[in-house]
Design brief:
By secondary structure, this protein is of the alpha/beta class. The protein is built from 13 helices and 23 strands. The chain has a seven-stranded mixed sheet. It is elongated. The N and C termini lie far apart (53 Å). The structure holds MU-OXO-diiron. The site of MU-OXO-diiron has 8 residues, from helix 2.
């Protein structure tokens, strides 16, 4: 059971999920798990902020009921309709028949799509517009729309007395609170941001501008820990990520995929040469790594080297998948080097070049390392040239 006071009147009633293997059925969340956050605000009126994933219904209801101590919420604020937060909307509406559901026009459109047009009577839906307020008594909620952070209906809620921002998916982090409560925030917050919200940098920038003038003391996201004290590092990190700026401009991600090991061996030689030249290198085997970690490393580093063989006249699929993810996240503003391998008609270099060239503000090194089956003197000479080129400003 997870009931914790965020402030005197705000109570955390979310749930840890320590057994989920893949978040969104694609991103590895073991062994850290994930939390589905939900909050109550107590005043003359009581507001419940969001529900949780269907995997966590029973524990969440226990938390809510214990925190309420026999009272009923007056409002259910719906920040986001994605099922990891909205799965229990109907359950909550049935349990508390006097409670109004607060959302915007897009929220209610999705509510009807997910649950049926007549699932909740119209008179129980309280539609708000961007900037609207809702008084709970001494506390006032301000609804700020944050479209595409991460879905179009998303809105964040600012409570002015407690100076708290309920930030929906923004500022979320992988990791169940009971497992990673004291772990550094950045690594799993970066991986969460890049993979969940990474495509929507412009929209995150818009949200940051919207909240910049607000006195802010606490951020309550829908995943991961409540953030408090000095919020500037979190806000600055979000500014960096959503601007597609690297955290380490000179850092190099060497992402490789190998069929029989020769491309991997070449990648090891390249990593040694880069390190000998003074580079900070992160190596990532795309065959064994969860792609979400590879993406997070790509956002972290200012430079990227891709190494992959051709396969059936195309690109070896693990590299293809990585490039597809980078494209969908609008990955941009990086310097890139390429290493291809092919035993008879290599096309990997051409295909990687096309994929990278389609991304915004990418600088491709002139030198491409072209390996025929295994690294030899000629391809190693190309490698030396690539090392010099990617390390030059
Ligand atoms: Fe945690 Fe976009 O839902």
């Amino acid at each position: 059971m997870s009931i914790n006071h965020v402030t005197d009147v705000i109570v955390y009633v979310g749930v840890d999920d320590r057994t989920l293997a893949l978040f969104e059925n694609q991103y590895a969340v073991q062994p850290m798990g994930i939390s589905y956050n939900s909050y109550l605000i107590f005043d003359e009126k009581i507001a419940l902020l969001d529900t949780v994933d269907a995997r966590a219904t029973a524990e969440w209801l226990e938390n809510v009921q214990e925190a309420l101590g026999g009272k009923s919420p007056d409002y259910l604020i719906i920040s986001h309709m994605e099922p990891d937060h909205a799965a229990n909307l109907l359950r909550a509406a049935e349990l508390y028949p006097q409670m109004q559901l607060v959302g915007n026009a897009k929220t209610f459109l999705m509510l009807k799509q997910f649950f049926g047009a007549d699932a909740v009577p119209q008179e129980r839906l309280l539609e708000v517009r961007d900037g609207d307020t809702l008084s709970l008594g001494a506390h006032t909620l301000h609804f700020l729309f944050a479209p595409m952070v991460h879905w179009p209906e998303v809105m964040v809620t600012y409570e002015e007395t407690e100076k708290v921002l309920f930030s929906a998916d923004a500022f979320g982090r992988f990791g169940a609170l009971s497992v990673t409560g004291h772990a550094p925030w950045v690594p799993q917050a970066r991986r969460y941001y890049v993979n969940i919200v990474g495509k929507y940098g412009a929209q995150v920038q818009a949200l940051l501008k919207k909240v910049a003038p607000l006195p802010l003391e606490i951020i309550c996201p829908l995943h991961g820990p409540v953030l408090r004290d000095d919020l500037q590092p979190y806000l600055q990190m979000y500014d960096t990520w959503s601007s597609y700026r690297p955290e380490d401009a000179e850092g190099i991600l060497l992402a490789y995929a190998s069929i029989h090991g020769n491309t991997a061996k070449a990648a090891q030689v390249l990593a040694e040469k880069l390190r000998a030249a003074g580079a900070r290198v992160t190596e990532c085997d795309l065959v064994t790594a969860d792609v979400s970690y590879a993406l997070a490393s790509a956002f972290y580093c200012g430079k990227l080297i891709l190494a992959a063989p051709s396969y059936d006249g195309f690109l070896f699929p693990p590299m293809e998948e990585f490039l597809t993810h980078l494209k969908t996240k609008q990955f941009q503003k990086r310097k890139v080097g390429l290493v291809e391998n092919g035993s008879w008609a290599p096309v990997a270099g051409k295909l990687m070049k096309e994929a990278v060239s389609a991304m915004k503000d990418m600088t491709l090194c002139d030198t491409m390392v072209s390996i025929r089956s295994a690294l030899d003197a000629a391809s190693e000479a190309q490698m030396d040239k690539l090392v010099a080129e990617i390390m030059a400003d």
